[in-house]
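Troubleshooting: if your tokenizer reports a length mismatch, compare your output against this known-good record of 414 residues.
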Amino acid sequence: MERVVITGVGLVTPNGIGTDATWQSLIRGESSAAQITLFDIDERYASRFACEVKGFEPTDFIDRKKLKEMTRFTTFALAATKLAFEDAALELSDEERETTGTFIGVGLGGLENLERCTLVLEHKGPGKISPYFIPSLIANMAAGQVSIAHGLRGPSLAHTSACSSSGHAIGEALEWIRRGRAEVMVAGGAEATITPIGIAGFSAMFALSRRNDAPKQASRPWDKGRDGFVCGEGAATLILESLTHAKKRGARILAEVTGYGATSDAFHITKPAAEGSGGRKAMQMALADARLNADDIDYVNAHGTSTPAGDVEECRAITSVFGNNALDKKLWVSSTKSMMGHLLGAAGAVEAAICAKAITQSIVPPTINLDDQDDACPLDFVPHQARERQVRHALSNSFGFGGTNATLVLSAVE
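Known-good structure output:
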């Protein structure tokens, strides 16, 4: 079975355009939350802030003529992929393009265009709907446009499993290479749901924080004062290669993807199962797949959304899996959602990329805003400031509505 390594990362996030810009912002503990500017928002909205990608110019990455085919989530995916290929210094041959696949997880797709075209239909009639409406909307078009742009003729799939979408995309790309069906896979996630209907919908579920007077302090995983997550947007692309292929071309290797677990709570459409049982099983599955013991893990990038129930159940699941290693605070856990918000379908890929950076840089990013830690969550969540540590193995959790769970294990390459 082939070993699978990460040789390139591209990030477009609320904390920066580019992997280094994002990473440096996270290490400094900076929140990207602010009042929404992507649409006119008023006091009718219970939550009026989000983590937006700032200063993004699509034409820096995409031909202007192509933009009419796309909505925001697809432009993010194309930008992140261009950055990832550059980071990997990867030039594919025509033969390699025949088998290289594109797996990009997306939760909701082109939500803003669905909203916009619905209003056009209502006010101007069906004859005014753009012929690009459907192609710009569907979730698989991030993978489709990336495969077109780079001539990748292997499988093109959109994993749509809520907030686990891109965790699943990376895990399934891992399996594709392991089975010898490809030597290179492009895997990641993209999301852009900061729209009127998106914010109103999540607010109607009481899922979003309502700290409108202090948005930068709103995302506060495991803090007693948490009241919901902060919506984010962006994309991440990882270049995955077989170790054999990466070595043959002399690639710089960032980390190895050693484990993958996927489960379902089979419990509730939005609430996590008691004791985080589904997440616990996903972590155990990923550890077994990586052939690691729980004590081998140095860092967990948690799902950690800042919701009252979700944070507690994930903490219980981590405690169950890692036992005294977690309770004695030898295991470090943090949530980078405290700084960049919840990127929904893109979150798993972004956070896997952050784990790869933690491994290569020997730094664990912090959980900011953890001012009054919940007594029900007694772990070391790396509050406020980043810390230096050799990270040999890192674990990333992504849990989604519908009870879907994905866990990845990343490891340093000896």
